[in-house]
Every structure is written in structure tokens, then in C-alpha cells.
């Protein structure tokens, strides 16, 4: 299954994702990358199940409050529009919908959502709730209407454990977000352990990894916490990390509709096993023997346990007793030489009168299956890793962009989209525009300013030039910046060297995004609704700025931060345009 964010214009860990409805009278079902991602997943597995979940919501939904539940009909309309748009514009059938990622649930909202889905002919879509802890299960036990509305009880990072109330609901239980661990061998060990033991210990029949692919700047929060890494679109470099092959031990030998057998448990000397069937005679068994220190996830704390080498005998009963042989796929995580064996086929194991025995070592994963379709797919050698180009330009002159946002820019507050400036007869027809004009209903501590970062977090010396267009009169403002040191859920604490100009004709140089550390200020003569060119030069411990090619301020001390990204942004949630961005850095 594939779970995607329903973009809500707010920060959701490593950046913002655009909403399909920035404003109440606005609908656009081609923003962002999630539509593309779902279609690519369907190409590879037409049976894959699709899940949508909001992290944030556009501000108009809250009617002035940072809360999506005061007007449940409005929020339901917004979410159901996303589901309908997926079908109408992309022929994507959404299978499950969530409530609000890791935030409070609201029983009335869930019931209104269920009623509306049924009323508009979407009865097949299941509601997952509440993508946090297990507390909703207690509410479901005392509210039969809520219980009827929810199909899946989903918890995040449950540590392979569930609670009694969740079991009493008789609903399917899922770990609807898990893993979130650095994708080396330890991350692979974490993933192997929780995929099995979420069912063995907690009766959870699905485990969803956050995140799918680490495709964001590595110095943002939770760097390389994906199943694989592809964070250099400028070079094309990627790396298929160990967790991908651990995933294959389960996903290559099951499909939606397979069920767990009540034949699972812990091995005598540590480790676990599960068994699944398609109900048509096929059988898949997954065994893992992960040791404690080699399988710690980022959360929650893992209590001590021991695993040692052992001989394990398995007994196949019922119709499976007739199985004569099982295909074998094997992984061994090597923490000494980093020379792990990952997802290798072994000779089939013979089953004699329903019995077979394995000699198991520590930190191993076995898949034994009746299916003969397993493959370790080959992929082309990726291009070599390269740093971000030290001389980078973007004029945004794309008539029909494939995506709504410009490549390599990573929005951290606000949304910066390609824009056709039909009112400008000059050189600025195609621009990049900040389009969020009301603070979203936030999931994390979004900044009060909008910001999009680009480049290399190790850059020290740089010259940044960009044409800017302030649209908001009187109190509007924009900036360009260098040595930007933060983003993601920590964006409010971002420091750097920020060169601001404002519609009232003033400028400021600050050491932070919040404009609390003022390094220089004065008059600039900038006006709104007029194009201006800003240049920021950082060299060593000195910063200087130019306006329209002329020096405006010079040699301002710039000691901290010592390195960071380049960035553009606005004073507040306001329309503003950017064009002809250029950075030279070292």
C-alpha cells in the first residue's frame, strides 16, 4: 500500500506540500508530486492500495482558527474533493482516508465524513483513525456510531504493542506509521523486526513506513530516514538502501487480500515468524532474528531482549501439509564489515511430511514461500554523487511545467509555484510566485514568514541575485538569504543572513528569519508592484547587498551561521514574485 499526504500548504516535517485548494474558490488537482507518485505506484502494482492523510489544512477551512473541526462540513468537503479529484483527473481510486496526522480526532467530524462518503457513492473508502495513539479505540467502544464509521484503527510507532481497547473494537489494527529510522543496516534491522512483530505482538496486519524515499536535503530533519535514498535530482544519483530489500521479503510474496494465519510467534532463542496465505493454496513464511542493538528504531525505546543462534523446526498442517518444497530468500545483516547479504535466493528447502528445519543465526531474515515469482530486480548503476552545482540559475521560463513547483527549491513555509504573469508585458511573464496568503492550520511550528531553500547546506561564500516583485502594498516585503541553517519542523528557529526589502521603501539585514537579530537597516526606495533586483554577497565574515546593481549596504559583520543554504521568501503570508534566480557559491 502507498500512503500519501493530502497537501495542506503547511509544514509537515521536511517541507510544505501544496493544497489542491489554496483558497475556498480554488481547485487544482495537478499541484505537487503526490498524484504522480500514486500513478507511478499503480504502474508497478495495479493492486496497490492508496491512502490519503492530511497533515495540515489551508487556513480558510478554520475560519480564522488553527483548528479543522469547528466546521466539519467544510473540512469534509475539502477532503472529499481531493478524493473525487484523484478519480476525475488521474483515474486514481483512493481506498482509505485518514483524519489528521498525529493530532486530536473529533468524533463528529469522523461521522460526518463517513456519512458524506456514503452519500456521494464512496462507500468503498475506509476511514483510518486516528493516526496517533490508540485512544480512539476507547471512544469507539462507547459510541457505536463512531465504531461503525471507522474501518481501521491505526496507531503510529506502537513499539509492536497494542492495547486491550483496540482489540475489543474487533476492527483491523494497523501500524499506520512506523520505522522513521536512518536507512543503514540498523534501520533495516528495525524494519525487519517491526514488520513481523507488529503482528506477532500487537495483531497489526499492516505496517507502513515513513518515509518511502529520502528525497529531501539531507540536513533537513530526519535525513535519510527513507527506505532508500534519492536526494540529488541535479546529479541523478540514488542508492538502494538495505531496508528496500528487507521490504521485499514480505511485499514480493504477498498481495492485498492475503491474510495472516494464526500461526505466528516468537522463536525459542529470540526472533519471530509469521505466515500468510492467499486462500488459494499459496503460503509465505517470514522469519527474522534481529538482535536488540542491531534493530533499534528511532522510537519508541526498545526494552532489552536477547537472540542467539538456534535450530528451528516448522510444521505445516492442513492443506499445507502437502507442500513438498518451499522457495527460499535470505538476508544477513553484517555489522562488522558492512558486507551484508541482501535478498538472495537460496536452494529450495524440502518439506518432508509437513516438516522442515532451519539453522538460524542472528540478524537474519528468511522468506519461505510456495511462490516462484521472486526476483532481485537489477537496476542501472546510478550516476556518481555530485554536490549541488556551485553556479546555479533558474529563470522559471517554462510554459507547461511538469510540476507546479520549481526543481531544487524546497518550500519550508508557504508554497512557491510557477506563475504566468499576464499583466507584465516585459521580461517577467514566467515567474515563481508565493501563493499562500493565509496562515495554514498547522501541524508543526510553521514560521510567520514564508521561505524556500535551495543549494548546499555546506556553502560558505556565495553571491545570490534575484529579481523580486512585492505585490502587497504598504507592509509587504520579500527577502533573499544565504547561510540558512534550518528548515522542516525547526523552521521557526532558522538563522542566516537575510536581506529584506519592504513596500514602505525600507530595508533590513537580519541574522534570522524572525527578524529579531537586526544587523543593518535603512531606506532603499523599493516600491510595491515594481520589479527590483537584489544581490547578496557573503564572503568570510562579511556581507554586502546591492539593489538594482548599486551598493545599498556593505561589509556588515556576518559571523554566524558559518554555512548554509540559499533562500527566498516573504515577510508574511502574501503574494510575491521571484525571477532570474542565480547563486554562485563555494
TrEMBL record:
Does the UniProt entry include the keyword Hydrolase? yes
Per UniProt, the keywords (alphabetical) are: Disulfide bond, Glycoprotein, Glycosidase, Hydrolase, Lipid degradation, Lipid metabolism, Lysosome, Signal, Sphingolipid metabolism
Sequence segments annotated as region (Disordered): 1-22
Ranges for domain Glycosyl hydrolase family 59 catalytic:
1-252
One example GO MF annotation? galactosylceramidase activity
- In terms of superkingdom, the source organism counts as Eukaryota
**Catalytic residues as annotated in Swiss-Prot or TrEMBL:** 102, 177
Protein's GO biological process: galactosylceramide catabolic process
Keyword Signal assigned to the entry: answer is yes
- Location in the cell: Lysosome
User: What EC numbers are recorded for this enzyme?
Assistant: 3.2.1.46
Q: Which InterPro entries match?
A: Aldolase_TIM, GH, GH59_C, GH59_cat, Glyco_hydro_59, Glyco_hydro_59_dom
The chain positions of domain Glycosyl hydrolase family 59 C-terminal lectin read 411-585
Q: Which reaction does it catalyse?
A: a D-galactosylceramide + H2O = an N-acyl-sphingoid base + D-galactose; beta-D-galactosyl-(1<->1)-sphing-4-enine + H2O = sphing-4-enine + D-galactose
Principal place where this protein is found? other
Task: Name the Pfam families on file.
Answer: Glyco_hydro_59, Glyco_hydro_59_C, Glyco_hydro_59M
Ranges for domain Glycosyl hydrolase family 59 central come to 260-375
GO CC entries: lysosome; membrane
The family note in this entry says: Belongs to the glycosyl hydrolase 59 family.
* Protein's name in the database: Galactocerebrosidase
Identify the coding gene: GALC
